[in-house]
Design a protein that fits this description.
The chain is an all-alpha fold. It has helices spanning about 1-10, 15-25, 30-65, 70-80, 85-110. The protein is elongated, with a radius of gyration of 21 Å. The mean pLDDT is about 90.
Length: about 110
């Protein structure tokens, strides 16, 4: 999914700056660095942040069905009626989700 979005972002760039750089005699690495990357970097960062947020949420659900991690710990403590540990697991999950949202919001505002 990430590769598909990355390639689509590259396909949708404005060719004007790239043609101007080629006409002025820039090398290919300079065209990539100064003509292509500035155009695709915001889209790439948006996709990466979206997948990071989704992966954090999905990992908890997968752990609850037996894949391990914090979700597995959460289900185990619930089954053993260890509600203090259950509350700690829920707080850790909430902190991870909130921290990811705050960091991604700041990065997106920084990029704009």
């Amino acid at each position: 999914m990430v590769g598909k979005f990355f390639s689509e972002a590259i396909e949708e760039i404005d060719q004007g700056p790239i043609e101007a750089m080629r006409a002025s005699g820039c090398s290919t690495p300079k065209i990539v660095l100064f003509g292509i990357l500035p155009q695709v970097l915001p889209a790439w960062i948006g996709v990466v942040l979206y997948r990071l947020e989704a992966n954090i949420r999905i990992s908890t659900i997968l752990g609850m069905v037996g894949a391990g991690g914090i979700g597995f710990e959460l289900m185990t403590t619930m089954k053993l009626f260890e509600y203090e540990n259950t509350a700690a697991c829920v707080l850790v999950i909430l902190l991870l989700v909130f921290a990811t949202d705050i960091i991604s919001a700041r990065l997106r505002s920084f990029i704009r």
